[in-house]
Write a structure and sequence with these properties.
The chain is α+β, with helices and mostly antiparallel strands and 280 residues long. The protein has helices at residues 2-16, 24-31, 35-46, 50-67, 72-78, 84-95, 150-164, 231-244, and strands at residues 129-134, 137-145, 182-186, 195-201, 211-215, 218-227, 250-252, 257-261, 269-279.
């Protein structure tokens, strides 16, 4: 499967650059997606953030180097730490001991083997979806700047929803387009600022304090979900990436991904995930 081949080539590239700079943009290109989407997909597939995986792999290599008699400072510099203090902190976080003790006979260290993606039979539970082609459409609403690190953005978005919560009612009168519902839109920009919008599809004038943005024409795989938010949404997103996408004949396109909230959050919230896709 090309999808698996591409992702494992990206992980090979990561391994080759543990002693140096890991270029996430290049990893994304090898995997067939943007750097931002690569980080999101990796987190869903591996169950650990990309940044944490890289740190664990580097500290695994560092422990082996130290046990082979190398100096702490040399090993620290090799894996991108400019000072022994920062390296010591990272090493202790992973191994529970300072690097100076790693050379001792009988000391206990931790090893985190590299990940290999492979096909695993899943899908006992059905996933309802449809492929939808849409022309460009305009959204109006509130926005916040997302950090380039996906794990940081995972913290920013829920805080933004809480912050905007009392003002969501201001969006309802503006709603006059499709998709119908409250939208969460990540612009996923690579060469420009990346924003997250809480917005509605609208042709109305932009009220003061809000922003407009045009979602480009694209093809989406649209999945329906229900349940308590945000857990139900996150569970569906993980299933889409790990169960649907690898065997679908599609790959994640360089376009915004969209969350559509069809009713107010509650025990049985109804929502959709719009995943931008392109044929492999």
């Amino acid at each position: 499967m090309d999808w698996l081949k591409n992702w494992n080539e990206a992980l090979d590239e990561l391994e080759r650059n543990l002693a140096g700079t890991v270029d996430v943009e290049k990893l994304g290109r090898l995997a067939g997606c943007s750097a931002y989407h690569f980080q999101r997909m990796f987190s869903h597939l591996a169950g650990v953030p990309l940044s944490e995986y890289i740190r664990r792999r580097r500290m695994t290599r560092a422990a082996a180097d130290l046990q082979n008699g190398e100096k702490v400072l040399d090993v620290a510099l090799r894996y991108g730490y400019e000072s022994p203090t920062s390296f010591n902190r990272a090493f202790q976080t992973v191994h529970g001991i300072p690097p100076s003790q790693a050379k001792q006979i009988g000391v206990k260290l931790k090893a985190f083997p590299r990940i290999h993606f492979k096909f695993v039979l899943k899908g006992a539970d059905e996933m309802e979806y449809q492929i939808v082609k849409r022309e460009a459409f305009r959204i109006v609403g509130f926005r916040t700047l997302l950090p380039t690190d996906v794990e940081e953005s995972f913290q920013v978005v829920p805080r933004f929803w809480t912050e905007i919560g009392p003002r969501q009612a201001e969006l309802f009168p503006l709603m006059n387009g499709e998709p119908v519902g409250m939208l969460g839109v990540c612009t996923c920009g690579e060469k420009e600022d990346n924003y997250y919008y809480i917005a509605v599809a609208s042709s109305a004038p932009v009220p003061e304090g809000m922003h407009e943005w045009t979602v480009p024409a694209a093809t989406w795989a649209v999945f329906n979900g229900t349940g308590r938010l945000p857990d139900a949404m996150q569970k569906l997103q993980k299933r889409i990436v790990s169960e649907y996408l690898p065997d679908s004949g599609y790959e994640w396109a360089k376009a915004p991904d969209i969350e559509v909230y069809l009713n107010r959050p509650g025990e049985e919230s109804r929502f959709q995930v719009w995943l931008p896709v392109t044929r492999r």
